[in-house]
Specification:
2 copies of one chain form a homodimer.
Chain A lengths: L1 H6 L23 H6 L6 E3 L5 E6 L3 E7 L5 H12 L7 E5 L4 E5 L24 E2 L6 E2 L9 E5 L2 E5 L3 E4 L5 E4 L13 E4 L12 E8 L1 H5 L18 E8 L7 H4 L1 E4 L4 H11 L22 E3 L2
Antiparallel strand pairs in A: 1-15, 2-3, 2-14, 3-13, 4-5, 4-14, 5-12, 6-10, 7-8, 8-9, 9-10, 11-12, 11-13, 15-16
Amino acid sequence: MRIALIAAATLSLAACASTPTPGDSIAPRTMSDIIAASDASEWRALDLESTLVMTLAGGRTVVIELNPVFAPKTTANILAMARENYFDGLAILRVQDNFVTQWGDPNGETDQPKSLGSASAKIPAEFSRDRAVAPFVRLPDRDGFAPEVGFVGGFPVARNRDAAWLAHCYGMVGAGRNNDPDSGPGSELYVVIGHAPRQLDRNITLVGRVVQGMEHLSSLPRGTGPLGFYEQPAQRTAIESVRIAAALPEGGAAGKLEALRTTSASFIAIVEARRNRRDDWYKTPAGHIDLCNVPLPVRVKS
Amino acid sequence: MRIALIAAATLSLAACASTPTPGDSIAPRTMSDIIAASDASEWRALDLESTLVMTLAGGRTVVIELNPVFAPKTTANILAMARENYFDGLAILRVQDNFVTQWGDPNGETDQPKSLGSASAKIPAEFSRDRAVAPFVRLPDRDGFAPEVGFVGGFPVARNRDAAWLAHCYGMVGAGRNNDPDSGPGSELYVVIGHAPRQLDRNITLVGRVVQGMEHLSSLPRGTGPLGFYEQPAQRTAIESVRIAAALPEGGAAGKLEALRTTSASFIAIVEARRNRRDDWYKTPAGHIDLCNVPLPVRVKS
């Protein structure tokens, strides 16, 4: 029983596959209960025109939903690169434990980088936008990094009196840059694989999030060089291709997915179920949830 | 330059190996600068009598510092098991993305589990202790889960008016249990490999933290069964041995390590350097740090 029940404490979507924890006569609602009872209208298909399907060596597939609402210029630039197969043949260059997995052009730092084609090498920073982005579903829970946190269109968002920005939660994807704020065109991307590095918020452009296949990026061997870079080219994982989902038959892997609307009653119910766990295993419900602990359910369409 | 400089944003100890970010004439102090300037007296050796050296298949070594101050009974029970080679030949049973890696007896759920020897099968829960644990180095930064957070003896700790408890940060190790609070004897352990699942605080006994070799536990293939359990025994990583460091020549891998005292001036300086990044790369210092984003430096003795 020990194994099964520490498992019941999971935060992961794998919980959807778990059987409800044995409870009392009035069984507590778990995330899986809530998802099972959700209405089809509470789910949305992904926008295939702004979703990427990345295939790594060995056929491992990663689906990334981009965010044109918060990063319109960078997203458009990345889509242009994907359209022209820019990412094909590039590689994962860096995996730093409890921080990021980063991919791009192995020759990016040489004098012979791969051509960006019709994409721009310089895109204005999109670190934040005006706060009037709607609908903003606010969490009542306090946050140490921003006055307000919540969700917009399925993404974790922070706000202050003037601006709104995407938050660096686990699975969020951003565009690497150098000291120049405008130097992140999206040709080199990273994904958060550890405790949320929220200090990066408003310092680098987040462009989307991984909605399927995160484990293919988080379980890669850590680089042994400084900052997690691989020391030998042979240690890098090759990127076979990155395609816009809309360009694939039926959207490829992305066409089969749907995400729970963060404006839905079921999503709000899941947040509360996670904020105050009521199953037998929990003795002291937290009474609080961190922005980056809120699950953003994605499932295969039935 | 892009790669090198997003690298400069790292939270990881790998930063110790990085060259300082090019700054202005008055260079900002980075974690590596502070560590380089630290005094030998600011570092402590690990207590080899309460430190475990776990060797995984292939010779991968993981060093775990136990915490008798917060979990005296569970720690003593785990040390008894290690002394009698209980863990030798067991395996990693579960790796759930963004949650935990868990190890123990593959036959633990059968009617023929491995004998715990002189160790107890039932240990009283050690979810928290009285708040009078000293020295408590408090963070001024607010926390959503507790009124006060800080550090005691190199571990992340949360407190309220009455109690103090270890926090579920990345790399923290706990003892799995079933619904009975007293059912976690330490024969099955887990380590946090994702965003801090702080809702587990005060619900399960934390016993220590990984101080070296974390990447060997965080980069394992995720289990494909429900909740991240491996579906095939062949997918499990075998545990060759778990030894008390003091029983190894010169303490084995643990004997070479020293940890920065969380009461030291250098540690406080590192926290502030991370709370407000001053290098050229950062445009908007966070002005806040999360308990679980504070690095707890460990280095090989020079």
